[in-house]
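Task card 7
Instruction: Convert sequence to structure tokens.
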Amino acid sequence: MGLLTKLLASSPTPSDDYWYNPVGAISTSGINITPSKALSISAVYACVRVLAESLAQIPLLLYRRSPDGGKERAVDHPLYHVLHDQPNRRQTSFQFREMMMGHAALRGNAYAQIVPGPRGFADQLVPLHPDRMRTEMTEASEMRYRYRLPDGRERFFPSDQIFHISTLSDDGLEGLSLITLARESMGLARATEEYGNRFFGQGARPRGVLTHPGKLLPAGRDNLKESLKDFEGLRQSHGTIVLEEGMGWTQLGLNNEDSQFLETRQFSVAEIARWFRIPPHMIGDLTRS
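Output:
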């Protein structure tokens, strides 16, 4: 079997979920940023939570204009209970709006199917995952939505059957994905985080240097190594070591590279907050508060 045949045999089928999963955006740092990976960055997760929870906790009321120019709650309107209480059978209004805002914040789009029923033309608003949705224009210049079902089949929805929320758009069809636009900032944050994890998990840089006025014999080196084992680990990291035979200890300070690493991590938090237009103090960054 040739190499090309092996590749074709191992590639996903046309109905596989692979083709509809978010591809992500490769940053210059080499990190592939997808919505799920972006949420593992603490600053991104905090920004999305601020936006989603802030929107979800606001009372969603429906009003009608009164003849005298004022307004009153339209509690008898079919949409009132759909928006205020329960958009669908699985979610409350809080959960629905929180999820829709999360989709829009990360992917630039949020979709829900408008299902008619006992409460009127919009008895339910059933959320649809934006990674499975595609917006397109027909030959008649009408917008329609192509959605891939979990079983691999595709379903087309006319525009009047989809509740679509989009952010800033450059084509009028779909909102721009923040993950794609901010891939460099998020890639840097993720790369810096991975570097820090590897540094503490695999790094062998000492905190100080032991000096001896003469030359240690092999037996002396072995005794020194054994005595230093009592100070390994976090619990013994601040213990007191007793030095013999005129040995001295020289503390190693934080070098420029380590200082720049800390500054980069701090900069990434402010940069991600800027992308989401969230004040840094709202996501726990109190550096300049």
